[in-house]
UniProtKB/TrEMBL annotation:
GO terms for biological process: nucleoside phosphate metabolic process; ribose phosphate metabolic process. GO terms for molecular function: hydrolase activity. Residues 44-183 form the Nudix hydrolase domain. This is NUDIX hydrolase. CDD domains: NUDIX_ADPRase_Rv1700.
Length: 208
């Protein structure tokens, strides 16, 4: 099988939730270490997310520029959103986010990669999709609000994004992982070797 992450769970003897927010919460666990000692681990509990690297027929990627208050930056990102409904099908969620944020639909979908964004302090799992054969979506544009009301939309060549990530000019996790993963796929076994869009996702099991 080669190198592979494996599921494992050390014994938790106590747990508490000192903070519950609108979408996420903070949990405190008392975890037993291999030597028998017990330590406290605080982490954010997250519903999970999907992200979409949408590639047009000229190898340009749809990107959005959005203000992110925790890091005090306007970041270039790819369309993404929370898995708001427990057990939600991630492909359906990704299709919704692409429509809402970019007013685009796609005919060809693949799983690009799955990641834990910050496993040392948050249980967020993200599935990054590759969407191709894109075109304008039907109907009215989705009405946005708050930070999304100020978003900018652009299409940027994939090679330019790769260079910007490696130069330290772009910092969004899903964008960086997505463009580097696609570059690796295109220079390796090809897009057809990617997993199908409905591939199992143990981190966030879903209904077909």
């Amino acid at each position: 099988m080669g190198i592979q992450d494996t599921p494992e769970e050390w014994r938790t003897v106590a747990t508490a939730t000192p903070f519950t927010g609108n979408k996420t919460s903070v949990r405190t666990d008392e975890v037993v270490m291999p030597d028998g000692t017990t330590v406290t681990r605080d982490y954010q509990v997250h519903p999970g997310s999907v992200a979409v690297l949408a590639l047009d027929d000229t190898d340009r990627v749809i990107v959005l520029r959005q203000y992110r208050h925790p890091v005090r930056h306007r970041l270039w990102e790819i369309p993404a959103g929370l898995l708001d409904i427990p057990g939600e099908n991630p492909l359906r969620a990704a299709q919704r986010e692409l429509y809402e944020e970019a007013h685009v639909k796609a005919e060809d979908w693949r799983v690009l990669t799955d990641v834990y964004t910050t496993p040392g302090g948050c249980d967020e799992a993200v599935r990054v999709f590759l969407a191709r054969e894109i075109s304008a979506a039907d109907g009215e544009r989705f009405e946005v609000s708050e930070e999304e009301a100020d978003m900018e939309l652009a299409r940027v060549p994939l090679d330019e994004l790769v260079r910007a990530v490696l130069a330290g000019d772009l910092h969004n996790n899903c964008l960086a992982v997505g463009v580097l993963a696609l570059h690796a796929a295109l220079t390796g076994d090809g897009v057809d070797a990617l997993r199908p869009a409905e591939a199992p996702w143990p981190a966030r099991p879903f209904e077909p």
